[in-house]
Amino acid sequence: MPRPGKSSYSDQKPPYSYISLTAMAIQHSAEKMLPLSDIYKFIMERFPYYREHTQRWQNSLRHNLSFNDCFIKIPRRPDQPGKGSFWALHPDCGDMFENGSFLRRRKRFKVLRPEPPLPGGVLPHFQPYGLNGSSPSSGFKHPFAIENIIGRDYKGVIQASGLPLASVMHHLGYPVSSQLSNMVSSVWPHVGVMDSMASMPVSHEYGPFGVPMKALCHPPGQTMPAVPVPIKPTPALPPVSAIPALTVNSSQICPSTLPASSSLLEQTPPTPSEGKSALHSVPVHS
DNA sequence: TATTGTTTACTCTACG
DNA sequence: CGTAGAGTAAACAATA
């Protein structure tokens, strides 16, 4: 990661891509996450080139934030008022620029995304997301979203138990948005827990939905069994700082089925030539 | 209303 | 030469 000092460059265009510049700004921050305005500020402070034509490059930068999976959006907590979210680096995208070029990465960092659930309760299976760099209109993008983390960590439990992600989240003590609840209950109306969760307002703090269903990872064609889910009171949310490192005893959910550790990130094993830190990416398929 | 965020489309260019 | 990453423009939605 390049670490230029303040105003390291004159008015000439720095040899960094927007992704690199943004990553620099985020890495430079104490919290390793910044709101958009602070990313702008960082870049303009250090690179005079970007003190002009702000509308142009800032639009490009925003495009990069949304488009590239290496950036994740972290919602503000209630005690952090302001507009927009914080932006952070995906933990697995660290060595994008290892080849020494900050203009062009070796390969675009992509996160696997499942398809949304099919009508009739047929569950989707995980598939690579973002074909040819395209971004589907509905899809989950945020690996730090609580639904995603739980879906990843408890994929095995979800698979074995047949419980919807929302139910697993509920058992773990996480609130579930009415949006997610509605999505699930529309597919599996027999899952009663959704009714009680519909009134919980909190979930948007952890990211957009459309995603969460990704965690409902069953083999293709398998249908969701009718499993009644007991309703339990929902404890307070954990601090945001605890989210990436979330670990909960899976026996709380289904003692007989330990979570099969799986990741939403398809990881390409490094080749000898790539060394220790190959970029995680998924093959593009059409 | 300005800012933030998403998405699409297109061009250019580096890379294999 | 084909592919994919990067840059740009633009339309549009959501939100503080």
Topology, please?
Layout: H1 18-28, E1 33-35, H2 36-46, H3 54-67, E2 71-74, E3 86-89, E4 113-114, E5 126-127, H4 146-153, H5 155-161, H6 165-172, H7 178-187, H8 193-197
Antiparallel strand pairs: 1-3, 2-3, 4-5
Helix pairs in contact: 1-2
This protein binds a DNA duplex (16 and 16 nucleotides) through residues 17-19, 35-37, 56-57, 59-60, 62-67, 73, 81-85, 101, 103-105, 107-108, 132-135, 137, 284.
Characterization of the model:
With 286 residues, the chain is mainly α. It has helices at 18-28, 36-46, 54-67, 146-153, 155-161, 165-172, 178-187, 193-197, and strands at residues 33-35, 71-74, 86-89, 113-114, 126-127. It has a 3-stranded antiparallel sheet. The radius of gyration is 20 Å and the shape is globular. Mean pLDDT is 53; it is low at 1-5, 114-162 and 171-286. The structure holds a DNA duplex (16 and 16 nucleotides). InterPro entries: Fork_head_dom, FOX_domain-containing, FOXB1_B2_FH, TF_fork_head_CS_1, TF_fork_head_CS_2, WH-like_DNA-bd_sf, WH_DNA-bd_sf. GO terms for molecular function: DNA-binding transcription factor activity, RNA polymerase II-specific; RNA polymerase II cis-regulatory region sequence-specific DNA binding. Its main location: nucleus. Residues 13-107 bind DNA. Keywords: DNA-binding, Nucleus, Transcription, Transcription regulation.
